[in-house]
Here is the input.
Amino acid sequence: MDTETIWADVAIGGELPVRRLGFGTGGLVGAGYWGVRHDDPQRSTALLRRAVEGGVTLIDTADNYGPDVAEELVARALYPYPDGLVIATKGGVVRTGPDIWHLAGRPEQLRAMCEASLRRLRTDTLGLYQLHRLDPDVPMADQLGALLELQQEGKIRHIGLDSVDADQLTRAREIAPVASVQNRYNLLDRAAEDVLALCEREGIAFLPWFPLGNGALAGDAGAALTAVAARHGATTGQIALAWLLHHSPVLLPTPGTGSPAHLDENLAAGRIALTEGDLAQLDGLA
Here is the structure.
């Protein structure tokens, strides 16, 4: 597969084109997705601008990163948004401390979260709004119904789901048009392969979270991965990202980082053309 094909746009919802390597903002906030990462917010805003200058057209964020911090940084760095830039955010959980999550899927909660994200991001319409988690205590139809209402009001362009199984995705699509799924998925963790297959069949974008295994893939991830990286003069993390781009045309990795050098390294992964032999080695690592 040539790099032009790897970088080719994917149309979210069939009509919203984005390049296949995005930027995730989870790395711009503190440990446990709480507070700020950099004492000087200009470091984070400069990183967001660097990502867009490097060709990124999809920024992936969430209202609970911080909370509020990541969305505010996105607006500070990139507003007014350039043509073609898609901001994807999420709602549906409430944070009360580092790594503490509370599901909040009642319709009135989802509406309030979405409208707060609109204000923080300084926009009238969110290109992609993803339900961060399905709340088991609220009927799926009520949760998706709230997002449908927001879509009909023009506040959401496309609806997505985070952390769902294939059955949930199938049921959700009977209620609302689902344009994206964001599940954990990477070279060594392919538990969501059946969800990916469903996304491929139905033309649904798949944004893999922890595309680098939350840093695990950057270390000693096995002789095969190290050997492929050495052949390409690349890091193991770059090969892991390149594998995602090769593995499925609907995969849209959005790796995050707080480091300009790491950002450049991630974006350079899009220029790596893996061979059939490379892919055979890597496919066997799961």
